[in-house]
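Section 5: illustrative case.
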């Protein structure tokens, strides 16, 4: 059975659940299309302040469906490229989404499932979660931005070592490397991610968007150019009603 993307709401947080118990929530073109469409609608919905992506059945995502990949080898390269492009469009949509996106990882995340988790802004993982990048073990190189994310965040040497070996890493190892941002007891990754999303949802949405944009664009940008970008975002947020209210409330609390 093909994995489907189920949607639900938890307060102001939109929850996207990969549901494919037969193959540990393997990715599929249907999931990519649903993910892109759902993010597009959530972007314009003021009642949605954050998105959490998780998996059903005690696992996050096993990556690409190997049976489908084997079948794709029989097609010409343009057809194969189209399938990968659909995945990459979803990854880019997650990265450019103006609201916080959190991954809640239980059990296993493998291959493209790891790429999906890394595409999220914040990653919450159960203490017994495992991350596997086994592309090299089946004669493939990464997709979904995994090599880009790892090279930027853990350095080229470690990225090469991990991707070449195709081994499995614990949530604690990934937390030490700065890839997992919060650890949760087994079975509670989703509730921990929802709690974090709720906290973020209390902040002015324009501030969250500005910070996400500034952090993502910082690497490779000269300091002077980045200072100009910070100035533009700062002024934009300063004149917004939310800043006036927040500053007034802070000054009143300091007086009391």
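Designed sequence:
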């Amino acid at each position: 059975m093909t994995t489907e993307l189920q949607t639900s709401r938890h307060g102001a947080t939109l929850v996207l659940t990969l549901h494919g118990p037969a193959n540990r929530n393997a990715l599929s073109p249907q999931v990519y299309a649903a993910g892109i469409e759902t993010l597009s609608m959530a972007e314009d919905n003021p009642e949605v302040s954050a998105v959490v992506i998780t998996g059903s059945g005690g696992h996050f995502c096993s990556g690409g469906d190997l049976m489908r990949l084997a079948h794709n080898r029989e097609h010409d390269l343009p057809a194969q490229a189209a399938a990968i492009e659909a995945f990459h469009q979803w990854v880019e949509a997650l990265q450019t989404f103006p609201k916080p996106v959190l991954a809640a990882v239980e059990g296993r995340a493998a291959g493209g499932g790891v790429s999906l988790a890394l595409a999220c802004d914040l990653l919450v993982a159960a203490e017994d979660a495992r991350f596997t990048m086994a592309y090299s073990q089946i004669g493939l190189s990464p997709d979904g931005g995994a090599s880009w994310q790892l090279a930027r965040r853990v350095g080229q040497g470690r990225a090469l070592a991990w991707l070449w070996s195709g081994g499995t890493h614990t949530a604690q190892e990934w937390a030490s490397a700065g890839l997992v941002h919060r650890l949760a007891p087994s079975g509670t990754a989703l509730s921990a991610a929802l709690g974090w999303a709720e906290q973020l949802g209390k902040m002015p949405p324009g501030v969250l968007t500005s910070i996400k944009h500034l952090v993502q664009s910082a690497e490779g940008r000269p300091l002077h150019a980045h200072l100009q970008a910070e100035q533009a975002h700062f002024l934009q947020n300063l004149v917004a009603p939310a800043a006036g209210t927040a500053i007034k409330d802070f000054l009143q609390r300091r007086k009391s």
